[in-house]
Protein 1
Amino acid sequence: MLIAVVGLNHRTASVKVREKLSFSGISLEKALKQLKTYPAIQGCVILSTCNRTEVYAATTEVDEGLNAIRDFLSRWSGVDVSEIINITYCHALYDAVRHLFRVAAGLDSMLLGETEILGQVRAAYLQAYDYYTTNRIINTMFQQAIAIGKRVRTETGIDRNAVSISYAAVELAKSRLGSLSSCSALIIGAGKMSELAAKHLVANGVSGIIVSNRSFDRAELLASQMAGKAVNFNELSKYLETADIVISSTAAPHCVIKTAEVSHIIERRHGREMIMIDLAVPRDIETGVGELEGVALYDVDDLEMVVDRNLAERKQAAIRAEKIIEEELSEFMKWLGTQFVIPTISALKQWGENIKRNELRHALNRLEKLSEHDQKVVCSLANSIVNQILHIPVTQLKNYALTNEGHLYTEVLQNLFCLNVPGQKTTKKTPNANTENNTGLA
């Protein structure tokens, strides 16, 4: 049983194309069951996110498996097979397993070390399992991938350092205030940056969110998504007084928060620290605010420095993660190699057993009046000869199963002895008896 994957992502295909090749809900169940009908596909999982679609399969033969996946994707999406080939990447054997392990670890994501992809890998596997489209090889591979994703994040901390401006803003607030569970936040502006910051604040347990925007309708919309409260823009001063965290990201051409205004507010806060984060360009908050006692002010440049430093740390963590993946990959391929050779060894032993049984029957029929003792001696001799002949190839095959070329030696042995192994297909080549002897001997 071999592993293959065909996929596309934000680097190989546009959003327009990725939409045609996305799977979710009821369509995913139908797609998985349709893919499983291909004779070459013994088990499959479809991983579909906004940035990628990947089809993983356990297959009896790599080329047939890859062709089956491409044909399935073409029929499903209406995109011609030739175009599917142009916009997809494919991996087989070691590379296919390594790719899945790297995906689960967040090393193949648009955002290095992202956490969300691990949950998406787990969900994709569990859905395929529930729809009965996986098999033992797929189950073991995905279970190990999920375990590796957890191990990488635990041992390297690759996902601990913020590498987006909005996330860095929240992490910076946490570093100053500690737990956010007793903190209130004021979001000024209702654009994408404000929305992301609000989501990170909620995820980190902030006690309450207030949203203010010149367009009150947009403020209400964002506040409703965060279970927060929308307030009019002309009431900012009132809510600045109670906010522990202020994140501002408007499109205003001038500052919307002035030093004098904040100075009066600070007097009424009785020493409680205020974290103010200005995500706007041009800036929303006057620089003099940062000089006030009890106020910590950060702008985009400050956050970009944090992001750059954190990204460098993630890259170092990624190097350690790659080592973990190679260790785990080696162990998985050893297991897979043994799974591949065990049926072949059984078939080889059965081949020898059949020959022994037939030849013993013929020999004993020709030998007359053998005593029971003599029959046992002849049978023992036959057993010993077959066992000794098969001992070296069986032992060697077990050893090769633990190497990168294990599946190749298995296929060669199957071809040499014309073994029919259920669930495994090899390319049998019959030597041409008429081929000229190229050794130069007459």
Note: Residues 333-416 form one domain.
Protein 2
Amino acid sequence: MAFQENFLWGSASAAYQIEGAANLDGKGDSIWDVYSRVPGNTFKDTTGEVAIDFYHKYEEDIELMREMGLKAYRFSVAWTRIMPDGRTVNPKGVEFYHNVINKLIECGITPILTIYHWDLPQALQDEYQGWESRKILADFTQYCEVLFNEYGDKVPYWVCMNEQNIFTSLGYVQKIHPPKVSDYQRFINANHIASLANASAVKRFKEMGIKGQIGASFAYSPTYSKTAAPEDVIAAENAQEIQDLLWMDVYAKGAYPKIGLKLLERLGIHIDFQDGDKELLKAGICDFMGLNYYQSATFVAPENREQTAQTGNAAQVSVVSDVARIPTDDYYVRADNEHLKMTDWNWAIDPEGLRVALRRITSRYNLPILISENGLGAYDTLTEDGRVHDDYRIAFLKAHVEAINDAIEDGCEVIGYCTWSYQDLFSWLNGYAKRYGFVYVDRDEESEKELKRYKKDSFYWYQRVIETNGENLD
């Protein structure tokens, strides 16, 4: 296998999805704390108030990571635990993450810190509508400075924004994340400000001389054309411009793609460039590209929309959007790919798509890549003897590890592989029904039970993968 000796075999999580302790030790409300309390906003009205209680169980969980032999753990810091109102530092919150980082280092696990994983302080949303105001640039940069000062000598890898394309589009287009609106121009406005905030954080990181590397994690589903018909090929190209390059070009080149901007302009959508914006984006180029990969995406031209994407059983086990049409439907329509099987949630299973993604990023940007998320969301069954036989997850991950190996042999530089997720956790749209972890957490939407941890079969599989540096995938 092609994995280098120091390859980061890791796993990942997000603060709101695991920590719980929503209002303990000075933590303030995030937009997700408030949003999830509104009946109907989440699947079976589930929240992260307790989640899997990592706040109190972090030592137990990290000891399990040590047992597995995990080389890296990507976790996010809750802005409202560090700064409850978005501005005022909470010493107990700062101390908590010192404790987590110190425990990881004690166990020989490299900490990868995600600065923002969707939990904006509600106070800033109330004051100036959060990402829709340029006032957030100063507040976000100040928050980053606190983290850099506190943890900069301990953390070698930093992820600034997690899936900026997802939290902006689901919040401002699909209406299934806060602030739960559908307005494409507002989406583009908020996203531009988030891009400026990301660049400001990267710029400040470098100005402060932090020794680590910083990047952003982008949710990338490489685009395919459903057919060889030229109009379908152009549709897939248009989808790549608007759904991918509008972010990745900014992270890696410090500028928006020309064709993507032109396509938006034709729809009457404009980016609000102000003095200094382009210079700031250029000053905020990332050190690596973080890649969150779950599936590829297949498209047809609007006039060939006879076979659109499956919905299957997703509506029964998930919050789904009721937005019927968005402006970009004039350019491309999502379609099924008959060559691919689907997960329980009707996501296309496409290991070769990961190889495609790695190659495209390498060819266009020539940056190192950290695979910051990849995993299978599925139904898991806990047996009476406390086992979870998740051979389907092992098969999924094995195929993707093989694809990474092939991409490395193709010439891609891959820093590490963080599966999503280490433990089962709260899902933004699926409560506790959709499980991703190596460690089963015994709770559901109705009851927290005892939050007991159980090692799945995949736990032992990944343990062997790590022990052999990817040589043993059986």
Note: The chain has a mean pLDDT of 96.
Protein 3
Amino acid sequence: MGWNSWDSYGTTVTEDEVLANARFMAEHLRAAGWDTIVIDIDWYDPTARAHGYNADAPLILDGYGRQLPDPARFPSAAGGRGFGPLAEQVHALGLKLGVHMMRGIPRLAVERDLPVKGTPYTARDVADLDHVCVWNPDNYGLDQSHPGAQAWYDAQVDQFAAWGLDFLKVDDMQTPFHVDEIAAYHRAIAKAEAAHGRPITLSLSPGGWLSTGYVDFLRGNAEMWRISDDLWDRWEDVVQQFARLARWAPFQRTGHWADADMLPFGHIGLRAERGDDRDCRLTPDERRSLTALWCMGRSPLMVGGDLPTSTPETIALLAAPALREVTAGSRGNHETVRERIFADWGDESSFRGELIVWAADAADWADGTPSAHPGGRYAALFWTGDDPYELGRTIELQSIVGLDRREEPWSVADLFAGVADGATPADVRLEGESADRVIRGTIPPHGVLWIALDPR
């Protein structure tokens, strides 16, 4: 659970902006589980700008071709200190610090033919000119058949660990899927962890068309991996994630997470790649749907909005206790129902939307915190249509709690209760007697009823 600068600042975030978000998180969100601050791409480009990347950018490199923070944007990095001073300030707030990094080696290091630290090789020796990122011009690939390629990653990651970084988001790794590069980066992190005595989380991006067939390899080499391309504040982007998270949910394990991408909530687009300065364009009910889906799918939660200038309603949603509880501690998460609903059955032109239901076992503990619903179940009832949907008698209680527990005296609790975020108040209840009980209520347009069922 963290903050990433991309949705707000694109390639241009500054040290002051990072610290402002870190301080806000520490004061307002850390108690709810939010604990990581991530600086996204091009922190080493002094010509970085909104809305795109710069060809032939004069990247700031050390004598071994490793990227250094732009001291104009990150003054504490001057004099070769890198992100060490900033990491100290973030750690003092009780938070973790991470950065974005591209796969491969800077083109500028290859042009200058800089040495690879600790080897007789140079950047030109280890570069792979045939495996270059198609959307960012900063780097060449690395030739992993060359012994100097591993040494390049080893030296780069060792420097990150020496600065005190806790989290590395490494891009251009999965689309296409670069098996050797991922394994090499994992080995470099393992060496740095052993040398510096601190764990580093590896997050892989992007994730277009990512196959679940890679799951064993991914668990062995990373803590997080994206399962989609970039997600923005458009309902159609959210709808695409229902199928992806349903596909990946059975493979989620604590410590190794399929990642549905950032939550584009709050004040975004200040200097971002896409769109203008704005508040998230998702409606309050759409934001709740996204939140509940990510939590039921146990995706990592990385928010993209500038926290100090986001609305109180956004912060209230992020601070909801259920986010941490369900993401960290639920089990057996899965989609149970997905049905296309028509106003006139048999008439394809009368399609209204999809009713999608998820269920999971409630947490007993979540990240060391006792669950509010021990022994219970979680359910999320989503509706993708543009008008409200009235639940009939189709969602039986026993389909969520299990046939062997259907006689228990279940009660229902709204997991968004008390969250003042402007969304439609929940209309949900249990009706019927004993084993014949059903979940009834009205789901708002593009909305969700996110509930806990307690056996008491």
Note: Residues 185 and 196 are 16 Å apart (CA to CA).
